[in-house]
Amino acid sequence: MRCSARRSEGRLSRWGIALRSQPRSADNSTVTNWRTAWALWVLATLAAVPASALLWFLGGQASCGEEVYDTPPGSAGDTFCTVLVQPVVPWASLAALPFVLAAIGGFIGIRLRDRRLFLAALIAPFALVAFAVFATVAVD
Predict the structure, then answer these.
(1) Which of 27, 38, 42, 107 shows a CA-CA span of 20 to 30 A to 99?
(2) Quick one: pLDDT band at residue 22, thresholds 50, 70, 90?
(3) pTM for this one?
């Protein structure tokens, strides 16, 4: 049984897939100063609050808008606005995703001492907001 496992590991390693039989320990050599990471996490989490508010405002305005159009009853835009944006809670929870991603993802990245997860959790919320703002502006 061990020989077949070694053979399959050899085959997979040729394709760039590495199998680990033991759990990965924290890579402390990659991470230099976690106190700076805590400070960066707090700043990025606080910066994600206005980013989420911008997403909430622009998305809500783009969906419902201030203009009055004579659209037929049951149109997609009116239905989207009345179902998702006007009740506030569903739209606010969607707009809060960048903040939640920065807060929880960054915290887990720090606790696990995983630099890639930490950086991804701090970059992804702002990339998400930038994409959503550009998509909203492109649609309008």
Answers:
(1) 27
(2) very low
(3) 0.66
Which residue type does 77 have? Answer: G
CA distance 138 to 72: 24
C-alpha distance from residue 140 to each of 28, 58, 87 (Å): 48, 11, 22
What per-residue confidence (pLDDT) applies to 108?
A: 94
CA angle (96 as vertex; 94, 102 as ends), nearest 5: 125
Query: In terms of residues, how long is the chain?
Result: 140
For residues 106 and 41, the answer to whether their CB atoms sit within 8 Å is: yes
Residue tagged 């508010």 (tokens): 53
Short-list 72, 66, 61, 43, CA closest to 139: 61
Query: Are residues 74 and 82 in contact, defined by beta-carbon separation less than 8 angstroms?
Result: no
Say how far apart CA 87 and CA 94 lie, in whole Å.
12
Q: Dump pLDDT digits (tens) for 71-91.
A: 677 676 677 777 877 778 888
C-alpha–C-alpha distance, residues 77 and 64, integer Å: 7
What residues contact 114, with CB distance under 8 A and at least 6 apart? 26, 27
Number of neighbouring beta carbons within 10 Å of residue 111: 12
